[in-house]
Design a protein that fits this description.
elongated; 196 residues; mainly alpha
């Protein structure tokens, strides 16, 4: 456990770390957003014909999201670590593995609810992080807040709509991939150098 040191400037540490890693993170977010958007479009356009291939591609994309959540958690400075991000990463990897190994007919409802909870955790984490950054007067948190709200709205839609077929799951995955890709794209565009 690290003890709080009142002489150390933790906000400046966060700003320096952010400014140092911003370009790499922005590039990674643009690449992930492109992959997710392509996966989402392919999942929506080819719902039946190449479902197995799309299913594996979507599973891989969801696992990549989980790994990126782990990397983001590991790269955060100590006092800004958010364990919701870690939980979100675990759920993403679990959903991706389920998509790889289990038949869709058995997991339609389970995956739908897991995606909804994943989106709730992810949205809450983004809103929490944006709130903490605003508390420390870190600018440009609007895209993070927007992304969090978008995730929570999609989660509510997932929980409210009835899902009865594998085809519905395909469109659910497409919506998840497209909206997550769009949210990452918005976050990447909103990544500015922080001046204090």
């Amino acid at each position: 456990m690290r003890w709080f040191d009142s002489d150390f400037d933790y906000v400046q540490e966060l700003i320096d770390t952010w400014n140092r890693r911003r370009k790499k993170m922005r590039t990674a977010y643009f690449i992930m957003a492109a992959v997710l958007l392509i996966a989402g479009v392919l999942t929506a356009v080819f719902p039946v014909g190449i479902f197995a291939v799309i299913q594996y591609f979507a599973a891989l994309a969801v696992i990549i999201i989980g790994i990126c959540h782990f990397a983001a958690f590991a790269s955060m400075t100590y006092y800004f670590k958010d364990y919701m991000l870690l939980l979100s990463g675990i759920l993403s990897v679990l959903i991706g593995v389920m998509l790889f190994v289990m038949p869709v007919t058995l997991t339609v409802q389970v995956i739908t609810f897991m995606l909804a909870f994943l989106l709730i955790f992810s949205g809450a984490e983004k809103l929490s992080m944006a709130s903490r950054l605003r508390y420390f007067r870190i600018p440009h948190t609007g895209s993070l807040t927007f992304s969090g709200i978008l995730n929570i709205i999609l989660a509510v839609i997932f929980l409210l709509l009835p899902f009865v077929s594998a085809l519905a799951l395909n469109y659910i995955l497409a919506a998840y991939l497209l909206l997550t890709g769009a949210a990452l794209l918005v976050e990447a565009i909103g990544m500015h150098k922080i001046e204090r």
